[in-house]
Design goal:
- The active site is at 114 (proton donor).
- Pfam families: Dus.
- Catalyzes the synthesis of 5,6-dihydrouridine (D), a modified base found in the D-loop of most tRNAs, via the reduction of the C5-C6 double bond in target uridines.
- This is tRNA-dihydrouridine synthase.
- GO terms for molecular function: flavin adenine dinucleotide binding; tRNA binding; tRNA dihydrouridine synthase activity.
- With 329 residues, the chain is an alpha/beta fold.
- The protein folds into 2 domains: 6-246, Aldolase class I (TIM Barrel), CATH 3.20.20; 261-328, no CATH class.
- 38% of the residues lie in helices and 13% in strands.
- The protein contains 13 helices and 8 strands.
- Strands 1-2-3-4-5-6-7-8 form an 8-stranded parallel beta barrel, surrounded by 6 helices.
- Strand 3, helix 3 (90-102) and strand 4 (107-112) form a beta-alpha-beta unit.
- The chain is globular, with a radius of gyration of 20 Å.
- The chain starts with 5 loop residues before the first helix and ends with a helix.
- 46% of the residues are buried.
Length: 329
Amino acid sequence: MTESNFWSDIAQTAKAQNRPFFTMAPMEAVSNTVFRQVVAKAYAPDAFFSEFVYAKSITDPNTKFPVDGRLYIDPRETKKPVVQLWGDSPIDYQTGTNFLKEQGFKAVDINTGCPDKTVIKNHGGTYLISNPEKVDDLVAACKQSNLAVSIKTRLGYSKVSEYHNWIPKLLSQHVDLLTVHLRTKMEMSKVPAHFEVIDDLIKLRNEIAPETLLQVNGDILNYQAGVTLAKEHPGLDGIMIGRGVFTTPFAFEPGNKPHSLDELLNLLRLQLDLFDDFSTHYDTPRFVSLKRFFKIYARDELGATDLRNKLVRANNSQEVRQILDDFQN
C-alpha cells in the first residue's frame, strides 16, 4: 500500500454515512474539467477520474497521444481528479507519476480495461489482460511516487471465466483500490453486466488483499441503484457510474428527486460557458464534441425533443444560447 490515504479516507467517510462511495468513470472527451464541474454543480460524487492520459505524454509533449487539456484543472474545481494512465512503459509511469505528485495530484489509476482498438494497438487498456506479466512493473512504477494507486479493469478479454486468474493477479499487487467493469473486453457494453460474480470478487479480495478496496462498474445508472447493489453484496466498497451520467447529470444525488427542464437547461448553459472558457486555454475542444451532451438536458420525457433537434443543428455555442433564449423566454 502507498503512503497516501486518499481512498481510505473516502471509504471511511462513506461508511460512516452507511453507504458505498461513488465515483464518476474515466471517459474520453467526457471526464474533463468542463463536465466534471457540471456534474459537481448537479451533485458531486466522492471522486472524479480524468480522461485517459497516455503515461508517456505527461513528460514528453511530442508523443502521438498528447496530454492536451486532459490534466487541466479549472481553478473553480475544488478537488483534483484521479488521473487514469494508459500504456505499458514502467519508466513513463514513473516519470509521469512523479510529475503528477509535484503538481498536487493525490491518486493515479492504471487502465487495464479500455476496449478501444487504438489503445490496445498501442499496448494499453485490455492489452494488459493478455499480457499480465507487465502489470507488476507498472504498479511498482506508480507506487514509488507514494500517490494512491488503483487499477481499473474488466473481468477478462474474451471469457468471463478469465476473472478467476486475472483478478487474483491484480489483487496480488495490493493497490489501494481495484475497480472491475463487470464485462469482458469482447462484450464491450453489448450485454448486461455480470452482477452474479460480485460476491466471488469480494471473496477473492478478502482472501488475497483484504486491505484493497473493491469497486464495481457497469449498468449502475444512479445513486439509488448503487446503494441497493452494495446492500445486496456486503463487502462491496464503491460504485462507479459511467453512462448513467448521460441519463441524468444528477446521477449521484440521493433520493431520485425530480428536476425540471429549466434546471437541466441551466446546467447546459453552465457547460457552454465552461466549454468556451476551456477553449481559450486549449485548441483541442471542438464544438461538435458538445452535441453528444444535448440529450442529457433536452429530454424527451420533459417535452424537449424538438428543442434537442434544434440544438444539434447549431454550429457554435452562441447559436445554442440563442436557441435556449428563444425556448425559455
